[in-house]
Amino acid sequence: xxxxxxxPYLLTLLTSxxxxxxxxxxxxxxxxxxxKVLHQLRVDSKPWSVCSLPWTRAAVALPFDNxxxxxxxxxxxxxxxxxxxxxxxxxxxxxxxxxIVLYSFGKIETLxxxxxxVRQTNLETSGLFKYxxxxxxxxxxxxxxxxxxxxxxxxxxxxxxxxxxxxxxxPGVDLPWSVLAVGGNQLLVSDFxxxxxxxxxxxxxxxxxxxxxxxxxxxxxxxxxxxxxxxNIVKSYAIS
Length: 240
What we know:
- It is built from no helices and 23 strands.
- The protein is an all-beta fold.
- The protein has a single domain, classed as YVTN repeat-like/Quinoprotein amine dehydrogenase (Methylamine Dehydrogenase, Chain H), CATH 2.130.10.10.
- The chain starts with 9 loop residues before the first strand and ends with a strand.
């Protein structure tokens, strides 16, 4: 994909055929079938996190502007709304009609789509978060929010009330880099040393999958494809 931009790609799956990419000072709508950028939108500063929303929309965090953009992503990208937030957002996710927002140094909030606070808490985390520190998974009526703590080398599972439920230390001395919930109580976690792991969040069991450096990930269940962004390149891998 695009090889000119020097900043890492952030990505999320919009539909089975389209990705939303964020890097440098732009957001792109990418068609994986045609293998081309359909539309590009310049933004005020570097995006740090992106997630898909219902109705072919996406949320993009601009931490250096203390802003979350809501984008319409139908055939081209356009800004629907700007949400002012109370700090530098390092991760944004969507669940049950709300935004889940993770700030630098561990504050996490659930927000209404107009930016109003539903609930908030401070996590016992340390250090700055990297590129994909937050992912949400719903199994039946149970919603789990997964956050990685980079310096302590662990994944934290919260419930929808932002209460800590479980901690998963990474194997050995590996440090988490990116986390993605893929359903079936399974997570994919990349580490600092370029290893991709699968975590069974029910059993707490780690399985090493492959050697791959990843900044951000998106998984397509329809195509059984994992999209990985690293540096200025996005690669795809068949996952059974």
